[in-house]
Every structure is written in C-alpha cells, then in structure tokens.
Amino acid sequence: MTLNATLSSWLKRIETELKISNWSELCKTDADGISIAPAYTVTDFDSACAPAFNSSHWDIVYRLPKPYQAINANARFLKALQSGASSIWYHVNASVFHQLFASIETPYILNIIEGHADALHATLDYLHSNGNKSTKIWLLQTQKANNVSNYDAFLKVYTAHHKNFNAASWAMISTESYHAQGATAAFEIAIGLSLLVDLQSRLKDSPAPVIFHAAVTEQFYNQISKLRAIHRIWNLWQQSNTHLPSLLLSTSNSTRFYSALDADTNILRSAVSVLASKIGGASAIQNTTAHLHLQQHEFNYEYLAIAQQLLMREEMLLHHYADISCGAYFVEYYTDALAEKALYWISEIQKQGGIHNAIQKGWIKTQLDMQQQQQDAAFWNNEQFKIGINAFLQHSDVSRLQVKSDNTFPGYNYEIKAHANTTL
User: Fold this and answer.
1) Each residue of 188-214: pLDDT tens digit?
2) Hey, what's the torsion of the CAs at 270, 273, 275, 279, to 10 degrees?
3) Which residues pair with 215 in a beta bridge?
4) One-letter-per-residue 3-state SS of 249-281
5) Domain boundaries, the chain
6) Which of 32, 46, 159, 164 is deepest in the core (most CB within 10 A)?
7) In 3-state terms, what secondary structure has residue 374?
8) Please, are residues 217 and 255 in contact by the beta-carbon 8 Å criterion?
9) pLDDT value at position 370?
10) What is the CATH number of domain 59-329?
C-alpha cells in the first residue's frame, strides 16, 4: 500500500476533520515561548539524532510523608517494600533511625535517599553494622530560590563517607521546589544542570554518578521532552569534558495541580506522569496518587502508587526499552527546542556570576515569580484546563473540601474559590 502523504495534505485533513477554517488556529505557544504546531515532519529536527539515553533501569521509590511517627513509618517502609518498592526516601532525625528500620533487611533496598546530611552518619553506620555494602545512599543537596544552602556542611559529610563505604554516597540535587514555584520546563532544566555542574566542580575527586531529581506533571509530551533534554545536554557536555560523570535521572510526580476534592483524578494524573517519566529516561521514579495533605485513605493510596509503576514495568515491560520516543517528529523537535531554551537560561545564570550568586542576589526568585504569574494567569483565566479543578467540576463533592489554602498547590486554592462560588 502506497501513501502519497504530504504536509499540506495532512494539514488540509486536519482542517476538514476538525471543521476549522485554517490549521493555524491550532498553533499555540507554551510557557517557555516555544511554538507548537499541529503537525511535524522529518525536516523539523535533526534526523541523525542519537538516542538521548541508553539505560532502561527502573527503580520504584517509596517516599516517607511528613509528619511521621517512627513506628508508623517503619510499618509504611515494610509495606512499601513488600508491595514492590525497591528504594526508600526519607528526611529523618538520626535518633529514630534504628526504630525506623526495625525488621527491615537492608540488602533488599537498592537506594536510600537521605534528605538530611546529619543523618547520613547514622544511615551508613547502620548499613555497615549489618554488613551491607551494596545499598547506595543518595544524599540530597537542597536549594531554595531565595537561599543558598550551606555547601560546606554538605561537602564535609559527603566526602568523609564517599571513599570509605564502597562509593555508597552519591550526590543528588532536586529542582522540586523550583518546579512548585512555577519554573517552566526549560528554566527548571537550567537551574538543575547549573547546580550539578557547580557541585561537580566542588567534588572533583568523585567518580560516582550524579543524580538530577525533577518533578513531572501530566503535560505528557512537554515532560518527556524536558527529561530527554536534560540527558541530551549532559551528553553534549560530556563530549567536551570527559571528567563529567554519568547522569542518573530521578523523578517524582508533581502535585501542583492535584485535586483536594477528587483523589481519583489524581490517580490518573499520577499514571500519566509516571509514563512520561519512564519514556523521558528516568531511572528512579517516586509517585503519589493522592496528595499527602489528604488524610482519608492515605495509606492505601500510597501503595496504589507503587502498583501503578509495577503494572507499567512488569506488564507493559517499559523497562525493556530505552528512549522509545527517539525519532518521533514532535518529541525530537520539542526536546531540541527545550534544550536550546535551557542553554539560553544557563548562559543568563552565568552572567549573574553562577547559580549561587543568581540565587543569593534574588535573580532566580525574580524569574520564578514572573513565570508563576504567567502560568497562574492562564490557569485562573481557564486558558489552561485541569479536569476536576477548573473544568468539569463535581459540585456535589464541594462539601468534602477541608484543606487550607496552600500557595504551593494552586489547584487547592481554585477549589476553595469554587467552594465559595458554587455557580462556577
């Protein structure tokens, strides 16, 4: 069968099928200023492009919610590991560490993600006392938009243990907080890669991989392309700097537009973000199907999130393939466009004297505020639809809303507004 399809014929078909006068009505611009068209061809990207990543490893991460009680947290860890999680993420006080890990056989844990440098001593001592030198520790170096974290304390703890525990401690940065404050995809990439490069300049003797942790939304193609752009830029840099270590990509699903009224909608959002994470090249994925502020059924929702990943990994077999979107016209175009925009932002950060100066001077916060305002305007004006939040609201459920306003989650604020105005 021969198909004589051309771009003009496809665009004409789009106009006919959608009953529009001109296909250009479907063109739009995303939050990064990138033009999105309704159709693409092989001429829209470099057809000689290589896969953005080669690894297909899939680590299912369970993240301990806060606040916690040590006994309850121990039960959560045990159930998560029994349910299929292979790594755990916590931010705890070292004094409760032994109670936290009671009855847990640590060799079955691939990675422990530690959000508190002081607790790293306890973590490593506990693993060492149990004869476990296989579990890796990912030590998270957090950054805030208006504050520069104390790198000296982080580096002291990291380097003290790195060579003495089978290279167990790996350095990890996260852009979750920037994402929650409204960072666009390209700006989030730029901040994260700038932090990683700065970190590597301070850890010159570290041969271990570095970890980039990003939040992923349900904007499917945007997020796939965002993650692929991270891989592509890092690969490009490695070609000119052989001292750069390999990069691991870790993700968690964004709860920025989760619904307080309809947790089932959140389940669907979570599934889409997990799929985008894996197709985009994440090696470790942490997801939640209902926001942790929701107390009802919270325990069950946590393990439904694990089951989501297990289904995609073991039944869809997505971990058997690497970069399955390579060569897809739109994804390649979008990946390249986001990478180009991210490189622009990286150059702007360098003009500020580097990432730490950019943070300390408030330049990063200023950019985030502007990006947040632009995205919020689209949301509040119903230009950006979120099912169950500002579209297809279930008014019969409004009485269930018992969540305080939280600027980190604009979707909650919209639902509070809906609660006061049921004619919305």
Assistant:
1) 999 999 988 887 777 666 556 788 999
2) -160
3) 252
4) EEEEECCCCCCCCCHHHHHHHHHHHHHHHHHHC
5) 59-329
6) 32
7) helix
8) no
9) 94
10) 3.20.20.240
